[in-house]
Every structure is written in structure tokens, then in C-alpha cells.
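Complex record, four chains
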Amino acid sequence: MRQGVEWALHSCVNLAWAGGPVPASRLAELYALPAAYLNKQLQSLVRAGLLISVSGPQGGFRLSRSPSTISLLDVVVALEGPEDAFRCTRILRNGPGGDPDLDYRDHCAVSLSMRRAELAWRHELAARSLADIAADVERTNPEAPQRVRDALLPGPS
Amino acid sequence: MRQGVEWALHSCVNLAWAGGPVPASRLAELYALPAAYLNKQLQSLVRAGLLISVSGPQGGFRLSRSPSTISLLDVVVALEGPEDAFRCTRILRNGPGGDPDLDYRDHCAVSLSMRRAELAWRHELAARSLADIAADVERTNPEAPQRVRDALLPGPS
DNA sequence: GTTTTGGTACTCGGATACGTTATGTCCGAGTAAGTGCGG
DNA sequence: CCGCACTTACTCGGACATAACGTATCCGAGTACCAAAAC
């Protein structure tokens, strides 16, 4: 899994606390990340419809909808793509008794088992929203949201 | 996920049917795979203790124990490594209020949620053995085992 | 004082290099079987 | 006829190239704000 997923997840939680638009450069300096690269990742989230980008001064990125309606799976899929990690290349077609016209992604026992496992994975991620994460953090560290907001303001830099 | 995982899984199922040792070259030509590269993958399975390799004529690879005691997870871990796909790099340490001495893999809400999802994935894979896969195939395609055995024999080539 | 107009600084967005990992290939070490010779 | 030693062919095992992808960076397009000038 790509490194950018971790950055994007944390940035999305921070955006949920921020409210208004925040430039990528400010999100990046929160964790000492390469700003230009984080920007690239957030662009993918914009293309997926999770974020809204606004140019110019006072611009940046903001969530496109309520944090409770954005799941971890949404973020992961936006960056990693919709296809499964395990890709069935239908090698059984070349084997003995292989049917060239059969889609082995739906018939190969190996492929089906791997898909079932990934489905369980996606189910867990889909059941957890950005708001859930934020709530967890607020429970164990109530001052975190305010600290993040302070750090994201145009501040003294 | 690596391509070799698919090859290794199918090869292991075929080894379960074969019984005796089968050289990598013969397993490879079953699906028109690059023999040397498949050999490389099987070596990882040997290092993980899933296969036993025997050199010389009539040699090859064979399962080290009963197919019912080898799970899909065993094969995947042998090739992909034991670490999670999502790796928490503890970026919160650099953030505001970050504790340099805290292991954020066990405290960061994002990391915990991702781990929970991967745990569900591993649970599914651990619950499915090579014998289960073989049984599924035999149910839908009873002649497959014999066909594989015939193809794996020293044959006419 | 109000409106307009030009400039300026800031932000995203995509195009461009770099390093690492996955992929693929090759040759040498080791081994068991087969063969020929000697007893 | 039986046993032994040599040769041979076959297999794994790791070291070596190649290609693809993830990572990182930079510069241009667009936009809102601000200031200055004109009315």
C-alpha cells in the first residue's frame, strides 16, 4: 500500500476539524511532509469527489461533504484504485482443460477465496468514517482538535 | 500484491494433488509461466517451511505437511512478508503535541482502524486451507485432479 | 467618498526526474540415478 | 551373477539484468485579494 494513504487519512481528519479550506503546504508542515507530494495525493481525492479545491489566497482543500459520510474505504479507493490487490490473471485458461471463454475471476476457487477476504477488508473500512476516527481521537485526547486548528490557522509561520 | 502469489497458490493446490515431488519447470509449463521465476517464488515457500525441496533427478518440490494444515494466509505471508500492507510511520510524532516516546501504531486511531481491517482479511485467509480449495475444485470439476496428475507426470513432453 | 482597474501574491494542477521494488534471466553447486567395469 | 565406482543428467539455489511503479520535485495556469488611481 502506498505511503500517501497514511498522509491522506490524517489530512482528511484534520480537514474535518479545520472546517474551512486549508492549503496543502500547511497540512504538510503539520507532520513535516513533502508539500508538493501531499498536494499530488490530495488531487486524487479531488478527482474522486471527496475534496473540493479552491485556488488563490485563502484557498486550499476542504471536505466535499460531512465527515460522517466519508469512509476510510473511500479514501483508500481514491488513492489505490478500485481493483483488488489480488488480481486473477486467469492462468487456468492455459492449463489442462482450460476454457478460453470462461471468466475465471468468478469460477476459479483461488480467486473466489481471495476476493472473499478482500471483501471482509473493505467491509471493515467502509464501516468506519472520518467522523468515527475524529471521535476516537477526541475521546482519548480532547485537546487535539483545538491544537490542530491552531496549527492550521495562517499563524506566525 | 505480487503476481507470484497467484502462481504459488495454484502450484500448491496442484502439489496437493500430485503427491510426490514435482520440478518447478513442470509446474510452470502447466500454465505457460516463466519457469525460473516460479522457481524463485517456490524457494520462498521452502524458506517458510511450507514446501520441501529435493535436488537431482526425480526431484522437485512437495508439500511439507498435509494440505489441510496449510492456509492461504501461510502462502501469502511467505511471499509478501509478515508486515501489514498499511504501515504506520508514526507521523503524529512530528505533529503538535506529538510524543516521541509513544508507539503510535498502538495509539493512533487511523492505524488501529487499518489494522482491524487487515485483521479481518487475515482471518478469512487463515480460515481457508489448500485442502478446502482442492475440495471446492473437485466439487465443480471432478476430473481436474486426474488431469493435473497426468500433466505433472514425466510425460511425453 | 466610491468605484474601477491594474498589480501582486498565493494556490492548485499537471508535466517532469529519480530511486526503489517487482519482474525476469542466467549460471553454478549438489545429488541421485544409471552405466560400465571388476571381482 | 553381484557389488562398486564413475559418469551423466537433472534439480534447486542464489547472483545478476531489466522494467515498472512509487516517490519526489518543479514550474505554469488560474484566482482572489489589495492598492492605487480616476470619477
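Note: Strands of chain A lie at 51-54, 60-63.
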